[in-house]
Amino acid sequence: MARLHTEMEMKMSELIIDQELDCSGLLCPMPIIKTKRLMDTMAAGELLRLVSTDKGSVSDVQAWSRQTGNELVDHNESNGVFTYYIRKT
């Protein structure tokens, strides 16, 4: 039986990822530091996919996005891997 895709999954599959950052194995504060450094090089409107294995990154990325004004478009977790989609504003 085929699984039906949710509206959000279909929207996510249509996103154009401009930059990718793999912070697997890094602990706080490194995912945020590396994200900030990369986002500083990106143009407004570009989208970053960030991957992290740090459980603390969930609250860290949400807080950082609020503080900087960058848009946390979506985030999810699968088997201990946290994926974030952040749009530069």
Choose one word for the global shape: globular
Low-confidence stretches: 1-7
Q: Whole-number radius of gyration?
A: 13 Å
Beta-strand residue fraction: 25-35%
Distance between the termini: 41 Å
Mean pLDDT: 90
Instruction: Indicate the CATH topology.
Output: Translation Initiation Factor IF3
By DSSP, the count of extended strands is 4
- The strand order across the widest sheet is 1-2-4-3
Assign a percent range to the helix content. Answer: 25-40%
Structural class: alpha+beta
What is the class in the CATH system? Alpha Beta
Largest sheet, if any? 4 strands, mixed
Quick tags:
single chain, 89 residues, alpha+beta, Translation Initiation Factor IF3, four-stranded mixed β-sheet, 3 helices, 33% helix
Walk me through what this model shows.
The protein has a single domain (15-87), classed as TusA-like domain (Translation Initiation Factor IF3), CATH 3.30.110.40. β1 (19-23), α2 and β2 form a beta-alpha-beta unit. Strands 1-2-4-3 form a four-stranded mixed beta sheet, covered by helices on one side. The model is unreliable at 1-7 (pLDDT under 50). The chain has helices at 7-13, 30-39, 57-68; strands at 19-23, 47-52, 71-78, 81-87. By secondary structure, it is of the alpha+beta class. The protein is built from three helices and four strands, in the order αβαβαββ. The longest helix has 12 residues, at 57-68.
